[in-house]
Amino acid sequence: xxIRELQIxxxxxxxxxxxxxxxxxxxxxxxxxxLGADGEEVNAxxxxxxxxxxxxxxxxxxxxxxxxxxxxxxxAIEALFRNCFGEGE
Amino acid sequence: xxxxxxxxxxxxxxxxxxEPVVQEIRPIVVLRIPLPVxxxxxxxxxxxxxxxxxIARIIENRDHAARQMGEEYATIFEAHHLIAADSSLxxxxxxxxxxxxxxxxxxxxxxxxxxVKKFEALPDQxxxxxxxxxxxxxxxxxxxxxxxxxxxxxxxDGPVILVADDLLPSTAVKLPLxxxxxxxxxxxxxxxxxxxxxxxxxxxxxxxxHGACEAGHHSRxxxxxxxxxxxxxxxxxxxxxxxxxxxxxxLEQQAQLQxxxxxxxxxxxxxxxxxxxxxxxxxxVDEAVHWNVAGxxxxxxxxxxxxxxxxxxxxxxxxxxxxxxxxxMGGRPVTIRTFDLGGKKLAREVTGSDxxxxxxxxxxxxxxxxxxxxxxxxxxxxxxxxxxxxxxxIRIMFPLISCIEEFKLAKLLVRRLTDxxxxxxxxxxxxxxxxxxxxxxxxxxxxxxxxxxxxxLSIGTNDLIQYSLAVDRANELVADLYRPTxxxxxxxxxxxxxxxxDRGIDVAMCGEMxxxxxxxxxxxxxxxxxxxxxxxxxxxIRSLIRQLSAKETxxxxxxxxxxxxxxxVEEFLLEKLALSLAKIKIRV
Lengths: 89, 588
Fold this sequence. Notes:
Distance between the termini of chain B: 33 Å
Oligomer: heterodimer
CATH superfamily of chain A: HPr-like
Strand content of chain B: 5-15%
Structural class of chain B: alpha/beta
Mean pLDDT of chain B: 87
Radius of gyration of chain A: 11 Å
Strand order of the largest sheet of chain A: 1-4-2-3
């Protein structure tokens, strides 16, 4: 299992397009991927779950990955957050 | 029994007579049906099949939208795909079918209601509105479960009148529009996506026709008069014959208008006039080029923001859109108005506040100044694009200027950004034409001084009338006080046109008045030479101008300016112009 603390740095927060990218990335791995904020945890392979987290810019998130490829999955998700979901800001 | 009649708002003009096809997207009432234990797994399977079919359709829609309208439009369908395959939706539905032993429709309805509530409770309004995507997807799943076949619309046989409660983008993009004579929608507004497409294709549309689906179900023929917003179901033969002859007259008029497509816009006595296009979406450019306009008189750049909302366009996005616009206009000058948000065109992401009186609030140039980064991004994009073309191709216009200082400040800003860009190595125009929208009475009163500062002026009549007369025409209680023929408004307009002429700068008009057949002759008489309008209005106005004499309209305008009431002006114009208007078969 891998646990990481992440932060949303892009302006718009975890909006629909960003959430879609998280789902696509998480789906590439066999492991189960979860994101938590404010004591609530959702499945990162669920766009509905991610959107209802309502994570805005600056929200601290906890990434939890469980499964055979947990290290790779966590690294991929972390990279996505770090480069602002590929959206530039 | 006399034929059923309904009224709505005609948003794309025309007449149609034909057979109705009704499409309702609102889900039929969902009932709870208890299942015997033995049937439960079959029901789960039925649900999964419906989901698979829905996903397949979403992918088809995605590809279709990407091909027809560009990848930008396709992203919404990608989100729909993820929602339809989402375990947060599917698992609870299956659980509920199994544990409560209920039909799939009921389970979907319950689970979706819970999800929607969750979305509605979100603090962020943009995210809360994503419930619409959940509802779009769930209505597609429910439709499949109900045995509705949305492909009914894609395989329309003959020419039909499409009656619907509303058209989702997912449906609209796949319609065979060559088989649709007209649209009648219960919901929808003048700017809905379907309307915009229909207008560009010349298909009549009436929106806000409550009860049309119900009436359409029981009818075999119907008449749509989108000029008047009238709908008649199962008309009697005499009435149908009358409409068919009106339809033929309309088609004949359209054909006649085609003839002026390439003719010059010139009065009988040789005064040349420029007809320009008002453009919201790049897709309207083809229409403008088709009708051979002299350029774009108003590009409403705020649509760029609305389309991309909530993401804001960056400098490269701006430059690219303007570059494409100028290229597709084939060398004709393009006037781009910097974003005119605020007022009623609210973009929360931009204004970030609620105002008690937004029409008098932070909008137009004021909003531009209050968000300097945001404004600079657009201006840099504009200046970069302008630098890539010969001088004069791109002209910049500032909205809602209410005093000279605002215009001077905007000019200063452009100069500073031009210097920055030059220093960064970009090619720039040293003197890009800068203009002011004259839509606040204070600016019209100061027209002479405005004309000294600006390279051109453009009169925005919709706001000028509303501010001059203190009337919100969307407010039914006072809408009848909104009078374009008001002598007060006319005198302001006359003043602006004269100020431009005295100073030797261009004056254009880009409000609705510029394409009103009754007002055009008067404006011509006041000396206006540049009329900017929806591209579809160009042929009609060109035919009209070709009937007129500049000399006659000038003496007519002098008399009109002496009248004291809006009604007198209107009656005077109707009397003077009856002949010219009749010649091109315009009913006023």
